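Design a sequence for this backbone.
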């Protein structure tokens, strides 16, 4: 098996463990067992748990941004700031098995960034900054927002997305209620973006 496939297999195992049991479920031995490979091979691709989590997070961060871009294209977003925010919020809502797993992994990594601000926690913070940067660029491309105002708005949108996603996952909101709240937010946001 080619090296890149083996590495992907190990990162997939880390993601599955994170999705099922959070950060505490990820141990070198658990990853080896989940991937069906030797502990030595897992150690070859990640010298420790932080290295495995960081590599997995880097891969997830790239996929997160790509999923948002793909959704934007599928929805035929015109490139307007409001369309980009809508695509971002739609993508962030955990409404299917894949997006629920993705959200679960994100929450696990968020907990890591808060409780263990080491290498993997810092990697998650880098991911959040990169995600905010992408959203800032989308907002500034179609508005007259200053960089500071666009950054605050990007963080507001990310906070709403995260909160709605968590409430949806915790069965405190239905999918239609979350979509209704998103639609209401977008209507209130529209005038702010047109100035």
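Sequence:
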């Amino acid at each position: 098996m080619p090296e890149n496939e083996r590495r992907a297999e190990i990162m997939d195992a880390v993601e599955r463990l994170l999705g099922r049991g959070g950060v505490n479920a990820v141990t070198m031995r658990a990853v080896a067992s989940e991937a069906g490979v030797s502990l030595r091979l897992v150690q070859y691709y990640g010298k420790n748990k932080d290295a495995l989590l960081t590599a997995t997070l880097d891969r997830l961060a790239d996929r997160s941004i790509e999923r948002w871009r793909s959704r934007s294209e599928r929805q035929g977003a015109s490139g307007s700031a409001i369309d980009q925010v809508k695509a971002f919020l739609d993508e962030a809502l955990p409404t299917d098995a894949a997006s629920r797993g993705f959200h679960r992994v994100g929450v696990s990594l968020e907990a890591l960034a808060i409780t263990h601000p080491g290498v993997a926690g810092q990697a998650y913070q880098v991911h959040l900054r990169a995600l905010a940067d992408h959203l800032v660029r989308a907002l500034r491309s179609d508005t007259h927002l200053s960089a500071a105002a666009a950054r605050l708005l990007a963080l507001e949108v990310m906070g709403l997305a995260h909160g709605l996603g968590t409430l949806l996952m915790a069965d405190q909101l239905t999918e239609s209620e979350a979509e209704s709240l998103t639609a209401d937010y977008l209507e209130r946001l529209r005038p702010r973006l047109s100035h």
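The mean pLDDT is 85.
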